[in-house]
C-alpha cells in the first residue's frame, strides 16, 4: 500500500459472499424477549452485524481454502502437521510444537502439567479461560498490568505492559519456587486489547530468568501486538512484523495460542515450548485427551489453514488495514461523544457504559443494557464485559460489581467492510442520543459459573 494515500483500503477483494439478514424492530423485540435479553442466546442468523468476538469468526483467504483441499488426514505423521510445525518454529523459534483444538486446550494441558495447587501465576491480565484453567489447579492467577491499564480514559501507547515493580514484589512475597511461570498476554484482551512494548517484554523476561522462572506468552494476537510495536516503539519502524514477532518470542520459553485469532482460522491452537521434559509430559496428556501429537484434535485441513493463516497475518498491508479499521471506528465514536477505552486496542473498541449511562447502577448491569440497545436499534451484537460477566455475589445477597462496565465491539478479521462499520457508528450514535432513557435489568435466572453465557434477564 502506498502510504501517501489517505484512504487505507481492505487489502483483498471479495470472492464469496454470505448473506446477512435484515430484521424489523418488532422482530428484534421478540427475539430479545425469547433470548431473555441475553445476546448469547440469540440465533446468530437474527444478527445483522456480529461483533460478539473476533475468535474463529474471521474470513479465510482463497489460499487457505485451497490449502485445506490438500490437507493430509493421516493419523500419524501428517504432512500438514509438519507444515504447521515449520511455520510456528519460524515465527516463534520454539523447539516443540503441540497442536490443540483451541487456545484453552493448550492452557489446560500446560497448567495441569506445570502448575501446582498453592502456586501463583502472574500475567499482565489473564483472559477468562486462562484464569479459570489456573484456578482449576487450585493455583492463583494474579493480574499485574500497569495502573494506566486499568483506567479507561488514560492514554498510554502500551497499556498492556506488566507493572515491573509489582512483578518484583510478587516474586519476593510469594517466592520464586512458588511461581511456576510468568505470562504475558499479547495483546492484553481483558484490558482492552492493549499492546505490550518490546521493552516491557524484555524486562519481564529478564526478571523471570534472573529468578529461574520461565516466561510463557499468551500469543493469540501476537501479530497485532507486533504491529503496535512497529508503529509506536522507537527502533522498530523499519522492521518487518515477522522480525518483531521473532524478537518477542526470543525472550520467552513457550507460548499458548488460539489460532482462532491471529491464526486467521476458524478453529485450532497450539502450545509451543523449549523445555524437552515439559513438552514430553504435555504430549502425554495431549494423547490422553486431544489426540496424537501430529494432530492434537485438529483435522489435517485445519492445520493447513492455520499454517497459511500465520503467514498472511504478518503481512504489512493486512496489519495496517486491521489496526486502522479498529481505530477508524474508535475515532468516529469519539467524535460522536461516545466514551470509549482510549486508545483503542487491536481487535476491538470498548465502550465505557458506566460513563455513558451514569443513571444505571452496576447492580442493574449498565453494559448489558447498552449491549441490548445496540441489538434493538440496529441488529448489532456486541458483548458485555461488566458486572453481568464478572459480578461476584456477596454474603448478604448483593453483588460485588466488576471494576469496569464495558461493551466490546469486537471486529472479526477481514469480514466487514467500511460501510458495515459506518452503519455500526450510526446505530451507536442513535442509541447515544437517547441514552438518558435507557433503563437497567435484573437477572431472573443464572447458572452457578460463567453465568453471562446463559443467564436470563428482565428489563426494570
Ligand atoms: N487467551 C486470550 C487472550 C483470548 O482472548 C482467548 C479467547 C483465549 C486465550 C482462549 O482461546 O477461545 O481458542 O480457547 N478469546 C475469545 C474472545 C473467546 O472472545 O476474546 P480459545
Kindly describe this structure.
The protein contains 16 helices and 16 strands. It has helices at residues 25-34, 62-69, 79-92, 103-114, 128-136, 164-174, 198-210, 222-232, 241-250, 276-289, 300-312, 316-335, 353-356, 366-378, 387-390, 418-433, and strands spanning 49-50, 96-100, 120-123, 140-143, 182-185, 215-218, 254-258, 269-273, 348-352, 380-381, 383-385, 392-393, 399-400, 406-410, 441-445, 456-459. The strands form 6 sheets. It has a 5-stranded mixed beta sheet, with helices on both faces. Strands 9-14-11 form a 3-stranded antiparallel beta sheet. Strands 1-10 form a two-stranded parallel sheet. A hairpin with a 5-residue loop joins strand 12 and strand 13 (399-400). Helix 1 packs antiparallel against helix 14. The protein is globular, with a radius of gyration of 22 Å. The chain binds ligand F0G.
Give structural attributes.
single chain, 460 residues, alpha/beta, Aspartate Aminotransferase, domain 1, Aspartate Aminotransferase, domain 2, five-stranded mixed β-sheet, three-stranded antiparallel β-sheet, 16 helices, 40% helix, binds ligand F0G
- Give the tally of structural domains: 2
Largest sheet: 5 strands, mixed
How many strands in all? 16
Task: Average the pLDDT over all residues and give the rounded result.
Answer: 96
DSSP helical segment count:
16
Helix proportion: 25-40%
Task: Using the alpha-carbon principal axes, give the shape.
Answer: globular
Small molecules in complex: ligand F0G
Poorly predicted sequence stretches spanning 5 or more consecutive residues: none
CATH top-level class of the largest domain: Alpha Beta
Counting helices, strands and paired strands, the structural category is alpha/beta
CATH fold label of the largest domain: Aspartate Aminotransferase, domain 2
Tell me the span between the first and last alpha carbons.
51 Å
Assigned CATH architecture of the largest domain: 3-Layer(aba) Sandwich
Q: What is the rounded Rg?
A: 22 Å
Lateral strand order in the biggest sheet: 2-8-7-6-5
| Proportion of residues in extended strands | 5-15%
CATH superfamily of the largest domain: Type I PLP-dependent aspartate aminotransferase-like (Major domain)
